[in-house]
Amino acid sequence: MNKSKMSSFWMPFTANRDFKAQPRLLASAEGMYYRDVDGNAILDGTAGLWCVPCGHAQPRIVKAVQQMVGKLDFAPTFQIGHPAAFELADKLMDYTQHRYGQVFYSNSGSEAVDTALKIALAYHQARGDGRRTRLIGRERGYHGVGFGGISVGGIAGNRKTFGPLLPGVDHLPHTHNLEKNAFTRGEPEYGAHLADELERIVALHDASTIAAVIVEPVAGSTGVLIPPKGYLQRLREICTKHGILLIFDEVITGFGRLTTPFAADYFAVEPDIMSTAKGLTNGTVPMGAVFVKQWIHDAFMDGPAGIELFHGYTYSGHPLACAAALATLEVFEEQQLLAHAKSVQSYWEDAIHSLRGLPHVIDLRSIGMIAGIELASIPGKPGARAFEAFKRTFAEGVLIRTTGDIIALSPPLTLEKKHIDELFGKLGAVLKTLA
After folding, report:
1. Whole-angstrom Cα distance, residue 178 to residue 367?
2. What's this model's pTM, rounded to 2 decimal places?
């Protein structure tokens, strides 16, 4: 592609000048691989952006979307509906083993988070407790790019340019501790006590003012921060004690990323609300979904007749997204993707930790089908070392993702041992070359 034709697209979360000087252009995808515009195969070590658990161009999903676009290209869901939206809701309830009663559709993870926050605030108002307006997030948390999401989020670069943000928001400390927990497989031993910081925040603001706490069960975009043993259980206990809603942002962890349907299943901790997206449609058509407990929904239904929640999107429950999501759930079941992911999980984990001792590697952490590789920063150039690894690895035919000086890996759940060998063989070789 001619570089002169690339000037108009302002790319998201991208060093635009660096990219346009040396573009990395993907032209097609199938299974575990992309192909660039020159026909070179690129092993997908990140499931796109955490969102392609079933592999690329999955035939059943492709066919479902093709059929739907010729049958029903669009249908509004304001005061009207279409069958696929209701069928999908029922299938999603099955997928959660009916621990949730309702699902509200959005178009992205960012919108799912803002939807979850609005539902939490409106719930307390619906039950006559409108004083509960405060939201509690966590340092280093990522909850999308809406104003609600960046307000409860805790990544400085996502917040500092866009203030003022929502008032009445506080943050828990993050749980990352290299001194105590480096090179951990699964949940680290140290740090459960950090959940007790919520009691300090409750004492500061009073529980009667706090609507909800939102956390990622595993913080993904900030660099794969895994919760210490007992940490999420303690958050659940404190929220229950004080009548505070607990929201899990499962945009990354939902739909198999930890080899379970949701992180809530992996950790055996049940939130009141879950925001999801990404793997819901295998990345094929944008869609998000917010799961809520039945009693939350029912609080809205006890009010006057009419519109119960003044919220929604033009594309909530879009027919093509519903078709993609229904087909994705079928693929999960028919191909037993969770069982397959479990079968290769230990091989994946061993491959990750085989990188220990390579130059600049100061931590390796893994859980489910996620890995974080933390590199020592170049003094005065934070993020430069990992970004160089990203570019060199792409040139060798493997796609990784970086955030700061952390490499994050999250491949499609369809990967085989040969793909693991290729990924870590090439990545390990690149790490040995970094200055």
Report:
1. 16
2. 0.97
